[in-house]
């Protein structure tokens, strides 16, 4: 297994796999504490094939000795596919892995399959764009970015000129430049086996993720399949086409789409778990354990049986807090006392520097899962819990920082 993820590792062990984990330095502590008896090969960058091969060589582990090579993560997906192919192990097909990582290749395949997707071009450098010739707004992003990092909505030629300036030194590129899609953003999570979408969860973000740049929250309400049959059927058919176009036939997926006037436009897809608490939400609402389904697909085992799902509607949000150094941080028990709150995790403590939430969508001070009787109630409760937390955290006065 390349890259660390504790539920993924435990799922592989559950199916009796003898696992060698290749991990980067930032996961060493967690991996060794959660799996003290496993073989961990530490490399500077677990997405880099050269470093993985060198790490395995240092550990005297032969690359052709593996039956399976897998990752549940986003970065190492191409490295894992390449190593599987090279070592004649079972793993993801290399062209599917590239299509799941590279946003330009992915959108081209989806467009060629006749599915709705934003128009895109790929300048090598931003300075190659002729700002006067573009139809604004446009979205500019890295080809293999994540968490909305270095992603910008650009409204006119002057904004583009300032972005060209920002990314001039050191030069960065190539870039993906897309037509701006109107509509509300959804995330679609589930399982695909032999090209058939077997489990599907559709959630609506409270705000489109890019709105983190202007103080937006990252969170969503899981939409009820019985109340949204048309949306679920459109999502199922879009995803079936998309997964076929990119060649991702067996595994899990996390995709995004825009919804406008009841119609869906594809945005992106990864062969991985959704961020934050998405896997907890899917387990709660559909009884589908995405880590276990990932492990089953990776090991070529049949899909599992879903557990009894909860009938309650649910949603989640990443908690934010005022900028600065935290002084008082409430207890998780206080969050759990908020209406509908069933799970709470806080990741800041007094003395912590509060992260910059506008930098990336995975920046958070914590996360909650909220349940309710209706999608609207879940939405209201989740936003209320986020607002409560944000005002309950106090930060040190600037002179004491
Ligand atoms: N073409 C687009 N039109 C409108 N909004 C977009 C477009 N592309 C990206 N966004 C916004 O930017 C966010 C980040 O872009 P995305 O392509 O999802 O990259 P990643 O999540 O890998 O950083 C999206 O969640 C969405 O809110
Ligand atoms: Mg995205």
What ligands are attached or bound here? adenosine-5'-diphosphate, magnesium ion
What would CATH call the homologous superfamily of the largest domain?
A: ATP-grasp fold, B domain
What amount of the residues lies in strands?
15-25%
Number of strands: 16
Report the CATH topology name of the largest domain.
D-amino Acid Aminotransferase, Chain A, domain 1
The appropriate CATH architecture of the largest domain is 2-Layer Sandwich
The whole-angstrom Rg is 22 Å
Report on this structure.
With 401 residues, the protein is of the alpha+beta class. It folds into four domains: 6-91; 119-179, Dna Ligase, domain 1, CATH 3.30.1490.20; 182-308, D-amino Acid Aminotransferase, Chain A, domain 1; 312-401, Aldehyde Oxidoreductase, domain 3. Helices cover 31% and strands 22% of the residues. The protein has twelve helices and 16 strands. Strand 10 and strand 11 form a beta hairpin. Helix 1 crosses helix 10 (290-298), helix 4 packs antiparallel against helix 5 (94-101) and helix 5 (94-101) packs across helix 6 (103-112). The chain is globular and about 55 Å long. The model has no long low-confidence stretch (mean pLDDT 96). Magnesium ion binds next to loops.
């Amino acid at each position: 297994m390349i890259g660390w993820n504790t539920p993924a590792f435990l799922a592989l062990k559950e199916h009796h796999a003898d696992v060698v984990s290749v991990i980067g330095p930032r996961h060493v502590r967690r991996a060794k504490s959660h799996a003290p008896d496993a073989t961990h090969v530490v490399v500077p960058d677990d997405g880099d094939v050269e470093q993985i091969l060198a790490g395995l060589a240092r550990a005297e582990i032969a690359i052709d000795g593996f039956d399976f090579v897998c990752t549940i993560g986003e970065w190492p997906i191409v490295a894992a596919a390449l190593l599987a192919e090279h070592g004649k192990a079972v793993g993801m097909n290399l062209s599917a892995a590239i299509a799941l990582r590279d946003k330009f290749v992915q959108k081209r395949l989806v467009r060629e399959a006749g599915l709705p997707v934003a128009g895109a071009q790929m300048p090598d450098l931003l300075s190659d764009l002729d700002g006067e010739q573009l139809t604004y707004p446009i979205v500019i992003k890295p080809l293999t970015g994540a968490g909305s990092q270095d992603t910008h909505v650009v409204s006119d030629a002057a904004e583009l000129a300032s972005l060209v300036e920002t990314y001039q030194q050191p030069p960065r590129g190539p870039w993906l430049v897309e037509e701006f899609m109107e509509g509300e953003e959804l995330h679609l999570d589930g399982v695909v086996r032999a090209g058939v979408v077997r489990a599907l969860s559709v959630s609506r973000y409270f705000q489109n993720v890019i709105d983190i740049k202007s103080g937006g929250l990252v969170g969503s309400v899981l939409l009820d399949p019985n109340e949204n049959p048309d949306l679920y059927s459109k999502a199922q058919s879009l995803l079936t086409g998309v997964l076929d176009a990119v060649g991702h036939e067996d595994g899990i997926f996390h995709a995004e789409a825009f919804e406008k006037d009841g119609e869906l436009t594809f945005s992106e897809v990864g062969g991985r778990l959704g961020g934050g608490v998405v896997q907890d939400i899917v387990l709660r609402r559909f009884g589908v354990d995405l880590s276990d389904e990932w492990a089953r697909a990776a090991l070529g085992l049949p899909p599992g049986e879903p557990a009894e799902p909860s009938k309650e509607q649910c949603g989640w949000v990443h908690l934010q807090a005022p900028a600065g150094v935290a002084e008082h941080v409430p207890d998780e028990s206080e969050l759990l006392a908020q209406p509908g709150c069933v799970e709470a995790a806080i990741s800041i403590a007094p003395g912590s520097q509060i992260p910059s939430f506008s930098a990336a969508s995975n920046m958070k001070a914590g996360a909650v899962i909220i349940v309710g009787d209706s999608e609207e109630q879940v939405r209201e409760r989740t936003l209320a819990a986020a607002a409560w937390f944000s005002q309950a955290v106090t930060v040190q006065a600037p002179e004491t920082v």
